[in-house]
Design a protein that fits this description.
single chain; about 400 residues; alpha+beta; Adenine-n6-DNA-methyltransferase TaqI, Chain A, domain 2; Helix Hairpins; 3 domains; five-stranded mixed sheet; four-stranded antiparallel sheet; 10 helices; elongated; DNA-binding; Restrct_endonuc_typeI_TRD_sf; hydrolase
Length: about 400
């Protein structure tokens, strides 16, 4: 922001007027929602705007609730709906825009902000959402925080003339649409992957060899038939001599954040490791307590905690990548037993996991296929994240 003129760092070149101070209550009409719980249906004419209708990105979401009563008041397009109760961090005060007339009805604990003349909805929604902290710090409550009408209407902000508002609002509307389209492409790729996982591991879709011939039937094995299962350990957390803050050679489930892992999320000393041996590079690991069936492949030797096991194949006819995708395709919890802290797997349960195993040549093809698909998904995901980062940069520079 240019402090002398109250203008943003980045502007469209045709505008040079100073932005003026406004109060939200002066530019919108505030309306509370009603109580429609007794009228709610799973399907209906009108979509009900609830606390689940706006996400932390300011996107309008389907609450899954509908009503049919034609006597209710519906919302007009370009109306902002604002979350008044914080059901999740970062939600109170967030807004989204109603796209069409006569489709939406406002439930309680959500407010409608109807813009008056010379205020652009897209501009206003983006401005409010980038200042969500204002509403969060002013919300009050013991179990659930709520923002009052007074605090909403007293929100002060700087805004340009209506023409510049429209241009800024239109710019972000187009950028949001671009992000939405790329997210749809990402979702389509993920749907395709889920479809291929179902078809390939049910053997509805099979690969053929280089001569176009079918591979042999798959074998049905148990984990104990193809692998030795080893488990990790946790040094005494109260002994500082066992832990090294400058190292990242020990892994807990919290550190299993992606398919390939190159380091741990904590460090232990040689004394902490005692007589334990690191998990070898390119080994498949799996969580079997608390968070069940989380899988990864370590790309550097590493120690793991006692809630993570790793597989050491007994023969060379098992492809680690294939096993990663196969075990991800099944519900590991069905092999577990109920414990105090949830479903867990003991040694017998892990060893009893059923594995459908094709010959190594077909395993290799399946692994290659899913790896290629994962790279496409990763590339598309990076594209979406880059656009979101770009949007955040513009939000910082194009508003005061």
């Amino acid at each position: 922001m240019n402090k002398q003129t109250n203008t943003p760092e980045l502007r469209f070149p045709e505008f040079d007027e100073e932005w003026k101070k406004r109060k939200l209550g002066e530019v919108v009409n505030y309306k509370n929602g009603g109580s429609f719980e007794s009228l709610v249906k799973n399907h209906g004419v009108y979509k009900l705007i609830t606390l689940k209708s706006v996400n932390t990105e300011g996107k309008l979401c389907n609450s899954g609730k509908y009503i049919d009563d034609k006597c209710v008041e519906t919302l007009c397009n370009d109306t902002l709906v604002m979350i008044l109760s914080e059901q999740a961090p970062g939600l109170v005060g967030m807004t989204a825009i109603i796209p069409n007339n006569n489709e939406y009805v406002l439930n309680q604990r959500v407010a409608a902000l109807v813009p008056k003349q010379f205020i652009d909805s897209q501009f206003l929604s983006k401005l409010i959402n980038r200042n969500q902290k204002y509403f969060s710090v002013r919300s009050a409550g013991t179990k659930v925080k709520n923002i009052s009408k007074g605090h909403v209407e007293n929100f002060n902000f700087l805004s340009p003339n209506y023409t510049e508002q429209q241009k800024i609002g239109n710019f972000f509307s187009k950028l949001d649409r671009q992000i939405e389209l790329e997210e749809e492409k990402l979702e389509l790729l993920e749907q395709q992957k889920r479809g291929y996982i179902q078809k390939i591991f049910s053997q509805d879709l099979r690969f053929k060899d280089e001569n176009g011939n079918s591979y042999p039937d798959w074998s049905i094995k148990k984990i104990e038939d193809i692998s030795k299962v080893n488990k990790g350990f946790t040094p005494n957390t109260k002994n500082d001599k066992y832990w090294d803050e400058l190292n990242e050679n020990w892994l807990s489930i919290a550190g299993m954040t992606q398919k390939y892992l190159y380091k741990g999320n904590k460090g232990i000393t040689e004394k902490g490791a005692s007589k334990h041996v690191k998990v070898d590079k390119d080994t498949l690991i799996m969580s079997f307590k608390l968070t069940l069936g989380k899988l990864a492949i370590v790309k550097e030797p590493i120690y793991t905690n006692e809630a993570i096991c790793h597989f050491v194949w007994k023969e060379s006819n098992v492809n680690t990548e294939y096993m990663y995708y196969y075990l991800n395709s099944i519900n590991i919890s069905t092999f577990g037993a109920q414990a105090v802290k949830g479903v867990t797997l003991n040694n017998d349960a892990i060893n009893s996991i059923i594995v459908k195993l094709p010959v190594i040549q077909e395993q290799n093809k399946i692994a290659y296929f899913f790896n290629k698909l994962d790279k496409l998904i990763e590339k598309q995901s990076s594209k979406v994240e880059l656009l979101k980062q770009r949007k955040q940069g513009f939000l910082q520079k194009m508003f005061v």
